[in-house]
Amino acid sequence: MLLRNKSKxxxxxxxxxxxxxxxxxxxxxxxxxxxxxxxxxYHLCQLAQTSKDLRKxxxxxxxxxxLYKERWGKIAGMNAFDLWRRLLFQRDSWILESKLIxxxxxxxxxxxxVNLYWQLECGEFWFPGQVFRQxxxxxxxxxxxxxxxxxxxxxxxxxxxxxxxxxxxxxxxxERIRKPPVMTSPSELYIPDVLNELRPGDHIEIQWRMNQxxxxxxxxxxxxxxxxxxSENQNxxxxxxxxxxxxxxxxxxxxxxxxxxxxxxxATEVGSASDGFYGxxxxxxxxxxxNAWLQPSLESDGQWSF
Length: 306
Description:
306 residues; disordered N terminus
């Protein structure tokens, strides 16, 4: 009995010593949380190794969700998050077998974002995204891919879903990556609700594919004026026409790819085997989306040409 009491006293003294060695835990909870929110991911991980109590606090979703959105929010959208969650619950699925995820972590309650953050950061999760392709005056198209981050080079590698799908391209920079703008599958027609609102000068993205067996890509374009329009401004009546022109200004005047006429009210793709097939349209309503297409880049993956 005496030995047992001494053992309990020693354990109690050890616990008290551990708590006294970590004065952060003596702070009010809101003060401690405010401090943790100001730490970098690296320092949070360092602090989490000092005690079990701090480990729990440093890994909470309330701390890591803002860090995840800041680091990955622009390139890893909800479809990436949903895929990652499915992988955790479908460990024997074909997705796991295709090595889209290299390790399946044990997820504790309220620790989702810290696990997803580091799986992306360490290149342990291939996530769905889109890659911009360089054109003559900025980016001209954006195609779907499965992406993996490489910490050593601070770039991405991609497996494309169309054409050379089996090839992996390395060295893709951050500015060439974005999360898919819509939840529609790359193989599905996107049904827009803005066609009647489009006017000359509007910036848009339109689905396009060369072959009906391929997934869609998104192409950047501008709504143009009709050939017989004499106003050449936003006050013309082109927006009342059933047919309207799409201008791909990435191509020079006179190119067969420069202009294409399309019907406003439709629910199917249009086109031909020679010109490709056009699908749904997204209207770009903010300058951040527009400028993403217009920024110059010296990169090219060398696969795509017309």
